[in-house]
User: Fold these one by one.
Assistant:
Number 1:
Amino acid sequence: QVQLVESGGGLVQAGGSLRVSCAASGSIFRINSMAWYRQAPGKQRELVARISSGGTTHYEDSVKGRFIISRDDPKNTVDLQMNSLKPEDTAVYYCNADVVITFSYKNLEVWGQGTLVTVSS
């Protein structure tokens, strides 16, 4: 019904920048909040940043001042600009969206397949 596809992961040196993007497609009536999560090896998945439909943002403490989440509603995309990257930012980054699907107008939580971000020291 609804798919999220991430892109933009890769390898970067500490102190560098990387931008990951996520595009939603399918039976979308409206997208409420969109978010980025990450999961490092051996750790639980954690919220990195969230943006509401109104543009209100929330960041996990360790990324405040370094990461910026943004969305483009006409394109159904959400981006995460990551600056001043640290080795501890290494993880698989997952896109997440709270979607209202067409016809039924039911809420659906959707996840992307993840994109790997590796920060070398």
Note: The first strand starts at residue 2 and ends at 7.
Number 2:
Amino acid sequence: VQLVESGGGLVQPGGSLRLSCAASGSIFRINAMGWYRQAPGKQRELVAVAVSNGGSNYADSVKGRFTISRDNAKNTVYMQMNSLKPEDTAVYYCNARLVASIISQARDYWGQGTQVTVSS
């Protein structure tokens, strides 16, 4: 299973970015897909997650600014990030909790990370 991310970059405060993450390989069922981030000197934290029943959860710090969505047919998750702040600067990692085959148990898979820098 591979998770391939795209969409990071440099943006000014107040700007927007859209992250994408596509899962490929042996996939039987995806239970949830989401985004975590890790800033220098800090622990990795959950940003947003979209679960298979259509629900989603967000970190308090991004509520109202970030929107997560999934395209189940494409095994892809997106995150629209608006009103970006310097404190959003971090490496953003895609996460998928999925079952690889009918005899497997669910486990977490991670993307390689994409840098988001918010600076003037």
Note: DSSP finds no helices and eleven strands in the chain.
